[in-house]
Amino acid sequence: DTEVTQTPKHLVMGMTNKKSLKCEQHMGHRAMYWYKQKAKKPPELMFVYSYEKLSINESVPSRFSPECPNSSLLNLHLHALQPEDSALYLCASSQGGLAGGETQYFGPGTRLLVL
Amino acid sequence: EDKVVQSPLSLVVHEGDTVTLNCSYEVTNFRSLLWYKQEKKAPTFLFMLTSSGIEKKSGRLSSILDKKELSSILNITATQTGDSAIYLCAVEAVGQAGTALIFGKGTTLSVSS
After folding, report:
1. Residue ranges of chain B with per-residue pLDDT less than 50
2. What is the pLDDT of residues A62-110, one digit of tens each?
3. Cross-chain CB nearest to B42 (options A53, A97, A108)
4. Main-chain dihedrals φ then ψ at residue B87, nearest 5 degrees
5. What gap in Å lies between CA B60 and CA B65, rounded to an integer?
C-alpha cells in the first residue's frame, strides 16, 4: 500500500473557526510532512515530523499547529486563519532513513478556502 | 542557502515537438533529485535520480543527472496535449530533522494541438 490519504478533500472555514486536517499512511514510514501550495507555485514545506522529532519551519504562523498521535497519523490544527491561508495543503511521507535516497509520497491534498 | 533553479519557467510547444527542461541545484547533503508532474491535483512522481550519467526512461519521458554540473534535464519526445502541466524538480537533502525535498519553481509546459 503506497498510498497517503488525506481528509477532508475540501474545507471551507471562517476566520474564527477551528478545524483540523488529517493525514494517514500505512507504509511504515517514519517521516511525515505538511506542505502548503498556492496556485501556480511549488509546494512549500511547513513541518517535518521524523523519528518522533518535530521540526517547525519558523516562518509558519502559530495559527497552524501540527500533531502526530502515532507514527501513521499526522494532523494539522487550524485556528484563526486568514484568507491568505487559502491553499492546497499536501501531506507526504517517506521512510525517514538517514541514508537518504528516498522518495516522498504525496497525498491528494486538502483544498482549503478561508472566508 | 539550499536552492533549486528550473528553466525555462514556461514553455509553449506544438504537438510532436521535443522539449528539454532544466534543473540546477545547490544543496548540502544531496541525496537524490526527483521530477514530478503536476496538473490540477497533487504532484505525481516521475523519476528519482541518484547516480550521475544513468538515464532513466518511461515511455516518451527520460531524465539524467549530472552531479559534476549539479544539474538534471527532463526530456519529453513527441509531445502530446496531455503533457501540458507544471514539471517540478526537487532535490532531496538530509538535515537535522531527516529527509525533505527542496523544490524548484517549476516549468509550465503548454502543448498546443
Report:
1. 97
2. 999 999 988 899 999 999 999 999 999 999 888 875 444 456 778 889 9
3. A108
4. -105, 120
5. 17
pLDDT value of residue B28 = 83
- pLDDT given for residue A98 in this prediction: 41
Average pLDDT, chain A: 85
Per CB distance under 8 Å, which residues of A are interface residues toward B? 30-31, 33, 40-45, 48, 50-51, 53-55, 88, 90, 92, 94, 96-98, 100-109
B25-54 burial, b at 16+ Cβ within 10 Å, e below that, comes to: bebeebbbbbbbbbeeebbeebbbbeeeee
